[in-house]
């Protein structure tokens, strides 16, 4: 087994898990200009929906995944309509929205912990996987699946943004909400859809992570932090940047602890963030 | 809303918070026994949430069983026993705040608990300073021996567990090279250090990870690169489940023995892993076979689904030992502490206890379990 190849593979797997959450976070930030602390919660919600439907009720896997994604999307939509939009309309600054989203995160975390207990749960049974050798490294069938789902879905999001009318509207609102309204775009409708989409994407990311290792309610902060790091490194509000940065973070993290003691793994991502903020504050691809 | 209304609302909210706080913290009712209103209040600290909740909840039930039995038989010298339950999780912050509450607000006579080493090491100075005897039923790290004069435990120190594992690994399993994979908290670190000290072969790699980390791939890859005969894997439930799955993916389970410690008494680990875990080993403190009526009482409390962990009877035993000490010494905490040191050959449910000068049980015996067909089996 080639160590270096294994580490690269590990890095790509980690990156593909971060990618969806980072892209969705960037999408949301770009459109709404506020730092949504409860973003990681969407990931955890979707994962737990799958746990409940697939493991407890024994419904088919694909159906459970779709339900999880849709449900977390709906949660995002509802949160926007009931909490964030009213606050924005009353002139709430991004700071206020951030605090509100912190409250949301805590509530969701507690509800999940009460319903499902704080314990760690896996989404699929281990034995269903098969192992492959790839250029000297071991990968499982699940990991290959996760990687492809992540890439394909991210590409679909990019196509949506560039090629569809809806995508153009999102870009317009992200650019300048006031002007977009003046031009006749229903900004609130666009934002509601962005919340739904962003939450659904994050949900999918959470499900994939759950499939890979497992979930527990306290992972909401973990998802959020990785998403934020990748989003900032990629260029705030830039979904393409977030996508590449997610992989960069995943790879650097895994290669990094080859050279330094493994207890420092978590600090590698943050170290990378600090480095970028010092050297290239606009991120990999800069602001859109 | 005008200013005056806002002012009233603020006042009502503050008043409500104060009233609720008072009601929540006020001392519990006292029993009338023979004209005197005295109760013995004991504090219980356990991991009622988080990864180690399987032990905490289990022992809580055992303590309830013990206290009910005591009260049914008339209490301690005619005085009823009451317990205040606090969640110490498995971390230092929760352990310290639970200890603070029990010692300073509830004014307990003694504390049973906590479950976990990190919580115990945080709670010990608080108990020690206040002179409140503390008996843990499952905090096993070696460093607890030095935690204080008032600190006892009915579970043997990990100094024994890790040495036992080291001896077993080289003596019975024939391992010459070992990689240690451990989490970053006092319990894992203590065992890792002791193992490294006591192992007669070579420790070729030592990798670590955060207590609740689930992506251990690179750590496993690094350990694998050194081609050890055995991996000593010290982790709590989440990391274990994720880690073993990752080991399987990376092909480590094919040619390397994986050996763990008593955190793996959590049945959830084996439920999640199933057949993947076949061939894994771990240690746990040896127990006398559980008395039937104890098991029946536990089943009543927890339902038949829940297994009785090896620590539940030790929690029960801790309560009984404490009760004896109080019966002898009265409610003076220092006298209770001294009486505890006098305990010699107390026959409990799980073991026969005598405390040494550090407040640890003077003997320690361990079982090795192997996973066969997805279930842990005690090896003879």
Give a verbal description of the structure.
The complex is a heterodimer of chains A (288) and B (380). With 288 residues, chain A is mostly helical. Chain A has a single domain, classed as Orthogonal Bundle (ABC transporter involved in vitamin B12 uptake, BtuC), CATH 1.10.3470. Chain A is built from 11 helices and 2 strands; from the N terminus they run H-H-H-H-E-E-H-H-H-H-H-H-H. Chain A has a two-stranded antiparallel ribbon. In chain A, a hairpin with a 2-residue loop joins strand 1 and strand 2. In chain A, helix 1 packs antiparallel against helix 10 (239-259), helix 6 crosses helix 8 (187-212) and helix 9 crosses helix 10. The longest helix of chain A has 30 residues, at 3-32. The N and C termini of chain A lie far apart (42 Å). Chain B is of the alpha/beta class and 380 residues long. Chain B has 2 domains: 39-155 and 289-364, Rossmann fold (3-Layer(aba) Sandwich); 159-279, 3-Layer(aba) Sandwich (Rossmann fold). Chain B is built from 12 helices and 14 strands. In chain B, the strands form 3 sheets. Chain B has a 7-stranded mixed β-sheet with strand order 7-6-8-9-10-13-14, sandwiched between helices. In chain B, helix 3 runs parallel beside helix 4, helix 5 crosses helix 6 (186-198) and helix 11 (312-329) packs across helix 12 (333-341). The chains are: A mainly alpha (288), B alpha/beta (380). The A-B interface holds A 1, 3, 6-7, 10, 13-14, 113, 117-122, 125-127, 129, 131, 138-140, 143, 213-214, 216, 218, 253-254, 257-258, 261-263, 265-266 and B 49-51, 53, 184, 207-210, 212-215, 217-219, 221-222, 224-225, 237-238, 241-242, 245-246, 248-251, 268, 272-276.
């Amino acid at each position: 087994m080639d160590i270096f190849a294994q580490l690269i593979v590990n890095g790509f797997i980690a990156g593909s898990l971060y990618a969806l959450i980072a892209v969705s976070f960037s999408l949301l930030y770009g459109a709404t200009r506020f730092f949504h602390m409860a973003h990681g919660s969407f990931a955890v919600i979707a994962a737990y929906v799958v746990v409940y439907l697939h493991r407890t009720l024994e419904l088919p896997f694909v159906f459970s995944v779709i339900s999880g994604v849709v449900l977390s999307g709906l949660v995002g939509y509802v949160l926007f309509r009931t909490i964030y939009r009213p606050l924005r309309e009353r002139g709430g600054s991004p700071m206020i929205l951030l605090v509100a989203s912190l409250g949301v995160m805590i509530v969701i975390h507690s509800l999940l912990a009460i319903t499902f207990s704080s314990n760690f749960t896996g989404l699929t049974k281990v034995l269903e996987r098969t192992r492959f050798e790839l250029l000297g490294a071991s990968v499982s069938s699940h990991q290959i699946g996760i990687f492809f789902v992540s890439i394909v879905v991210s590409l679909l999001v990019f196509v949506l943004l560039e090629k569809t009318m809806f995508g153009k509207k999102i870009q317009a609102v992200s650019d300048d909400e006031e002007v977009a309204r003046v031009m006749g775009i229903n900004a609130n409708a666009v934002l509601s859809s962005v919340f739904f989409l962003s939450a659904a994407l994050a949900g999918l990311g959470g499900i994939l992570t759950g499939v890979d290792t497992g979930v527990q309610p306290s992972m909401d902060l973990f998802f959020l932090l990785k998403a934020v790091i990748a989003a900032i490194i990629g260029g705030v509000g830039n979904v393409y940047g977030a996508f590449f940065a997610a992989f960069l973070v995943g790879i650097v993290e895994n290669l990094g602890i080859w050279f330094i003691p493994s207890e420092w793994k978590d600090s590698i991502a943050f170290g990378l963030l600090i480095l970028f903020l010092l050297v290239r504050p606009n991120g990999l691809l800069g602001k859109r | 809303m005008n200013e005056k209304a806002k002012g009233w609302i603020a006042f009502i909210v503050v008043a409500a918070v104060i009233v609720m706080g008072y009601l929540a913290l006020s001392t519990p009712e006292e029993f009338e026994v023979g004209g005197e209103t005295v109760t013995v209040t004991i504090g219980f600290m356990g991991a009622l949430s988080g990864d180690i909740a399987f032990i905490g909840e289990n022992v809580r039930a055992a303590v309830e069983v013990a206290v009910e039995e005591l009260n049914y038989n008339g209490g301690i010298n005619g005085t009823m026993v009451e317990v205040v339950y606090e969640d110490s999780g498995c971390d230092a912050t929760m352990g310290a705040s639970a200890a603070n509450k029990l010692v300073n607000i509830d004014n307990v006579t003694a504390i049973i608990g906590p479950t976990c080493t990190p919580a115990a090491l945080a709670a010990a100075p608080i108990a020690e300073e206040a002179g409140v005897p503390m008996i843990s039923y499952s905090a096993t790290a070696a460093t607890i021996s030095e935690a204080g004069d008032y600190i006892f435990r009915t579970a043997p120190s990990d100094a024994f567990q890790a040495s036992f594992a080291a001896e077993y690994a080289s003596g019975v399993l024939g391992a010459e090279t070992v990689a240690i994979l451990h989490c970053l908290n006092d319990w894992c670190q203590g065992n890792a250090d002791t193992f490294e000290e006591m192992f007669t072969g070579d420790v070729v790699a030592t990798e670590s990870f955060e207590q609740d980390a689930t992506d251990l791939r690179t750590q496993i890859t690094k350990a694998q690169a050194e081609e050890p005969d055995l991996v000593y894997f010290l982790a709590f439930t989440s990391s274990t489940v994720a880690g073993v799955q990752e080991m399987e993916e990376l092909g480590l389970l094919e040619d390397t023995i994986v050996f763990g410690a008593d955190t793996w008494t959590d049945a959830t680990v084996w439920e999640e892993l199933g057949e993947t875990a076949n061939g894994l080993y771990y240690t746990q403190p040896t127990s006398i076979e559980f008395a039937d009526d104890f098991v029946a009482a536990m089943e009543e409390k927890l339902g038949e689904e829940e297994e009785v962990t090896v620590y539940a009877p030790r929690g029960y035993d801790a309560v009984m030992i404490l009760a004896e000490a109080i019966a002898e010494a009265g409610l003076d905490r220092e006298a209770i502490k001294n009486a505890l040191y006098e305990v010699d050959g107390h026959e409990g449910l799980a073991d026969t206890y005598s405390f040494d000068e550090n407040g640890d049980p003077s003997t320690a015996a361990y079982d090795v379990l192997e996973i066969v067909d997805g279930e842990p089996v005690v090896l003879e």
